[in-house]
Automatic annotation (TrEMBL):
Domain N-acetyltransferase stretches: 13-165
Transmembrane segments: none
Name of the protein: Ribosomal protein S18 acetylase RimI-like enzyme
InterPro entries, per database record: Acyl_CoA_acyltransferase, Bact_Acetyltransf, GNAT_dom
């Protein structure tokens, strides 16, 4: 059974590891141990994870983790953006627990938290090189609102929104 809860400072080293696990083209992969080796520091690519509490909670958003059997198996955050939406960021699900409802539970909890914060719409992006993610968000009722491609990218960003139910 998965439990969704707020981030705790002690979660940071495992959150840092979870953020670096394969996500592009990844599906369920039981070969990755459920107990993750804690990272010594935040990944350079995600400076907001250096201080999760300040970057998310301190900025009017929220950062949640998914836990099962005492192990962190998922994470994700929301931040209010300039359009008054809850921008979804850093969603990851442990490869060994994919396709088991962890992502669905995490997204439902993020949507609930957005409603509690008074935000009325979710906003996120993913990319065409992650077709599983595109299908996942569509299956949750997210509606594609646009795409963006740049000459130096080998993929296309796909933007989605979904109304928040109060």
């Amino acid at each position: 059974m998965v439990t969704i809860r707020g981030f705790r400072d002690a979660d940071a080293p495992v959150v840092w590891t979870l953020s670096t696990l394969p996500n592009i083209g990844a599906t369920a992969d039981a070969s990755i141990p459920l107990a993750l080796e804690p990272a010594a520091g935040p990944p350079a690519a995600f400076d907001d994870l250096a201080d999760v509490r300040a970057s998310f909670d301190g900025a009017g958003g929220a950062f949640l983790v998914a836990e099962t059997g005492g192990h962190l198996v998922g994470m994700g955050g929301i931040l209010p953006n300039d359009a008054g939406q809850a921008e979804v960021l850093r969603v990851r699900v442990h490869p060994a627990t994919r396709r088991q409802g962890v992502g669905r539970a995490l997204m439902a909890a993020l949507e609930t938290r957005a409603a509690e914060l008074g935000l009325r719409e979710m906003f996120l992006d993913t990319a065409t090189n992650q077709p599983e993610a595109v299908a996942f968000y569509q299956g949750l009722g997210y509606r594609e609102i646009g795409r963006e491609t740049r000459p130096d990218w080998s993929w296309t960003l796909v933007y989605f929104t979904k109304p928040v139910t109060p």
